[in-house]
Structure to design on (329 residues):
């Protein structure tokens, strides 16, 4: 059989998870987190429960943490297993075979062939991104896939390009990184909310124990002047790559942290509202800063932005203090 699908999904009627519908500063954060949220949602699980890892986000010198749900958290919360898949056959063959066995592949692909990126990369730029392959019909040259905050479809020449079918020139690039996602077969794994909250809290306390020992925003502030000097000597394309790796990950990770604390509050755990507000301030301020920095790079005139980071530093300190008081890792 040359076709397979996990679920009966239609891009036209697919309803995204509430996290991707509500008003947010960062409607998309990074391709992996947004993708995981929608895959878990489609599988019948509550994605909010896995977001506690965002509290451990750190500044790593050349980026803020590219935050993503740890596989061990997905296993503990939902019974979902994530493994690296060794590609020894064409990606299309692996994807079809795993779908037929009930597995879903998370694959690095070229956004040049993804119609949902029509506003940015589609047929314009070759940019790496991750999709979840949910449906394949080889005879129809059609694919259903999760990407960023939604579920989409492609066909025809995009199908051929994505899977490098009869490429015009020999393929010289390395095989993509691919993960296999396996879902539990027993419905009992989809447990009651109270049990899910308790397991989520246990994992979050572990993430808090590995939180940064120094304020990550303070360390970023100390480097920002050098970054600005470096950026104004380059083009806007370089700035966008920088902004995605730094301010977008900073803002989006703490927006997720605030949303996670809000979910805990809705589940009956009180006293987390102040921390959520502090982390939301970091998110909103990062959005303002990313726009301000774009204007500086475009004008080629350096400006000291460190004062804009000082309230964010304070929000991190206060937010963490509130969380540690309430959750006691």
């Amino acid at each position: 059989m040359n076709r397979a699908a996990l679920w009966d999904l239609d891009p036209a009627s697919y309803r995204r998870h509430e996290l991707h519908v509500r008003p947010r500063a960062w409607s998309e954060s990074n391709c992996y987190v947004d993708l995981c949220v929608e895959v878990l949602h489609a599988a019948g699980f509550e994605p909010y429960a896995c977001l506690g890892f965002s509290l451990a986000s750190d500044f790593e010198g050349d980026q803020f943490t590219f935050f993503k749900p740890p596989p061990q958290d997905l296993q503990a919360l939902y019974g979902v297993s994530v493994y690296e898949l060794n590609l020894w056959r064409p990606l299309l063959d692996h994807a079809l075979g795993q779908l037929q066995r009930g597995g879903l592949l998370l694959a690095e692909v070229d956004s040049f062939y993804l119609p949902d990126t029509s506003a940015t990369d589609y047929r314009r730029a070759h940019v790496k991104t991750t999709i979840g392959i949910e449906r394949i019909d080889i005879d129809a040259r059609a694919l259903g896939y999760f990407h960023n905050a939604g579920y989409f479809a492609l066909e025809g020449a995009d199908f051929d390009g994505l899977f490098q079918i009869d490429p015009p020139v020999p393929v010289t690039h390395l095989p993509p990184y691919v993960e296999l996602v396996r879902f539990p077969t027993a419905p009992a794994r989809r447990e009651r909310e109270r049990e899910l909250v308790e397991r989520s809290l246990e994992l979050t306390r572990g993430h808090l124990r590995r939180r940064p020992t120094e304020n990550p925003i303070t360390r970023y502030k100390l480097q920002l002047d050098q970054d600005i000097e470096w950026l104004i000597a380059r083009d806007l394309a370089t700035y966008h790559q920088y902004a995605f790796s730094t301010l977008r990950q900073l803002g989006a990770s703490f927006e997720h942290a605030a949303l996670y604390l809000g979910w805990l509050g809705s589940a009956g755990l009180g006293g987390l509202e102040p921390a959520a507000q502090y982390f939301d301030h970091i998110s909103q301020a990062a959005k303002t800063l990313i726009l301000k920095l774009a204007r500086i790079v475009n004008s080629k005139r350096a400006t000291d932005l460190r004062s804009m980071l000082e309230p964010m530093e304070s929000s991190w300190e206060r937010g963490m203090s509130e969380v540690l008081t309430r959750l006691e890792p």
User: Anything to note?
Assistant: The chain has nine helices and seven strands. The chain has a mean pLDDT of 93. The first strand starts at residue 3 and ends at 5.
